[in-house]
C-alpha cells in the first residue's frame, strides 16, 4: 500500500499484532452454547432443505415442483459447503468435542476429499496466504491473477478458464491437489500423488454415484429430470462458491508477497499479511450465512479456527483497529468486488506493458522490517 511505510513502524506492527491476539483471546473465552446451538440449527436447516429438494424432484413432471426442488437442493449444497463443511473442517467447533463437528471426521457434499482439502486449504493456503509460488490458491495453477506471475501466451485464455472453473468449481478444487502445473514443470512427480489420487477417485465415485445414478434411478421414469436437477444444483453451488471465494481473495488492492520477504515473519507481520491479502463483501445476515461468513474473509484469515458466525460481530472492531494503524480494510458489495476480479483476469491475460522489467514487484512486508533503523 503506497505510503504505508510512512505511517507504520515495526513497533506499531507488533502492537497491532498484540491487539489482534487480545481480540482472539476474548473470542475464545466467550465461545459456548450459543455457538453450538447455531451450527446445529444450520445443519438441521441444511438437511431439511436436502430432503425437501430430493422429494420435490420426485414430482419433477410438474415444472414448478422441479424448480423448487432444484432451489432447495442448491441451498442445501451451499450451506453444506460454505457455512457447515468449510467452517467445521477448519476446526471451528473442535472445542465442543462433538464427533459430528470434528474437523478430522467431517466429510462434505462435494467431490473434493476432506483430507486433501484440509492440507491444501487449512495448511497451505492459510499458512502462506498470497505468497506467490507458495499459496497455490493464487491462480489455482491455471489462472494469472497477480503481476508477479510470469506472463505466458497460455494466459490469453484467462477469462475463458475462469468462467469454465466457475461452472465446475468443485472439480477444480478437487484437481487442485494434484498440482498438474508443477508436474508439467518437472517440480513434482506423478507418483508422489498416489494417495491423493486414491482419495479423489473414491470420493468422486461416491458423489457421482449419489447425484447422477442413485437418486435419479429412485425417481424411475423421471430419472433424466432428476439427473438434470442434481446437476443444476451442483452448478448453482459451484458458481456461488467461486464468486464468494474469488471476491474474498482477488479484487483490486489485495496484495501479494514473495517467499523471501515473509521469512521469519513475526506474529504481527503474519496478521498484517492477512489484512493486506484479503477482502470482504458487504451484505445482509442471510447473505453472510450463505457465504459461510466468508463475506468476512479478512476476519476469517485473521482467525480461521474461530466460529464464522462471530465474524460479523468482530468486523467493526477489526476495521477500527485497521483505521487506527492506517491499514486498508478492503470491502464492498458483491457486484463491485466481482467486477474488480473480472478486470484483473482480463488485465493479466495480456502481456505486461513495457516488458518484465517494468512489472510491479509483489507488495512487501520488508517495509516494516526496514523501518527498524528509522
UniProtKB/TrEMBL annotation:
The keyword Membrane applies. InterPro entries: FA_desaturase_dom, Fatty_acid_desaturase. One of its GO terms (molecular function) is oxidoreductase activity, acting on paired donors, with oxidation of a pair of donors resulting in the reduction of molecular oxygen to two molecules of water. The chain crosses the membrane at residues 160-178. One of its GO terms (cellular component) is membrane. Keywords: Membrane, Transmembrane, Transmembrane helix. Residues 65-331 form the Fatty acid desaturase domain. GO terms for biological process: lipid metabolic process. Residues 351-374 are annotated as: Disordered. It comes from the Bacteria. This is Acyl-CoA desaturase. It comes from Prauserella cavernicola. The lineage of its organism: Bacteria, Bacillati, Actinomycetota, Actinomycetes, Pseudonocardiales.
Amino acid at each position: 500500500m503506497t505510503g504505508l511505510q510512512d505511517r507504520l513502524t515495526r513497533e506499531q506492527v507488533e502492537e497491532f499484532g498484540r491487539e489482534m491476539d487480545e481480540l482472539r483471546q476474548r473470542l475464545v473465552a466467550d465461545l459456548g452454547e450459543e455457538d453450538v446451538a447455531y451450527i446445529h440449527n444450520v445443519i438441521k436447516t441444511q438437511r431439511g432443505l436436502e430432503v425437501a429438494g430430493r422429494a420435490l424432484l420426485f414430482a419433477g413432471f410438474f415444472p414448478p415442483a422441479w424448480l423448487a426442488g432444484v432451489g432447495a437442493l442448491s441451498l442445501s449444497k451451499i450451506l453444506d459447503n460454505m457455512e457447515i463443511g468449510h467452517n467445521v473442517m477448519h476446526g471451528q467447533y473442535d472445542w465442543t468435542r462433538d464427533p459430528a463437528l470434528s474437523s478430522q471426521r467431517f466429510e462434505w457434499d462435494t467431490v473434493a476429499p476432506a483430507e486433501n482439502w484440509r492440507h491444501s486449504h487449512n495448511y497451505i493456503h492459510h499458512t502462506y496466504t498470497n505468497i506467490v509460488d507458495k499459496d497455490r490458491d493464487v491462480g489455482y495453477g491455471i489462472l494469472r491473477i497477480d503481476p508477479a506471475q510470469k506472463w505466458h501466451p497460455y494466459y490469453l485464455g484467462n477469462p475463458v478458464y475462469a468462467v469454465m472453473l466457475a461452472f465446475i468449481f468443485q472439480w477444480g478444487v478437487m484437481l487442485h491437489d494434484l498440482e498438474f502445473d508443477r508436474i508439467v514443470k518437472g517440480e513434482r512427480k506423478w507418483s508422489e500423488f498416489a494417495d491423493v489420487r486414491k482419495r479423489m477417485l473414491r470420493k468422486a465415485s461416491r458423489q457421482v454415484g449419489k447425484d447422477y445414478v442413485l437418486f435419479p434411478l429412485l425417481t424411475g421414469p423421471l430419472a433424466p429430470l432428476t439427473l438434470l436437477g442434481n446437476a443444476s444444483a451442483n452448478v448453482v453451488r459451484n458458481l456461488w462458491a467461486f464468486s464468494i471465494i474469488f471476491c474474498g481473495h482477488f479484487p483490486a488492492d489485495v496484495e501479494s508477497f514473495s517467499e523471501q520477504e515473509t521469512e521469519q515473519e513475526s506474529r504481527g507481520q503474519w496478521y498484517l499479511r492477512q489484512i493486506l491479502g484479503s477482502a470482504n463483501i458487504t451484505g445482509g445476515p442471510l447473505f453472510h450465512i450463505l457465504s459461510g461468513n466468508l463475506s468476512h474473509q479478512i476476519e476469517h484469515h485473521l482467525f480461521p479456527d474461530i466460529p464464522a458466525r462471530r465474524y460479523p460481530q468482530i468486523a467493526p472492531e477489526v476495521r477500527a483497529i485497521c483505521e487506527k494503524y492506517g491499514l486498508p480494510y478492503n470491502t464492498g458489495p458483491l457486484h463491485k468486488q466481482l467486477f474488480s476480479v473480472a478486470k484483473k483476469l482480463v488485465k493479466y491475460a495480456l502481456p505486461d506493458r513495457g516488458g518484465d522489467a517494468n512489472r510491479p514487484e509483489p507488495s512487501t512486508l520488508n517495509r516494516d522490517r526496514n523501518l527498524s533503523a528509522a
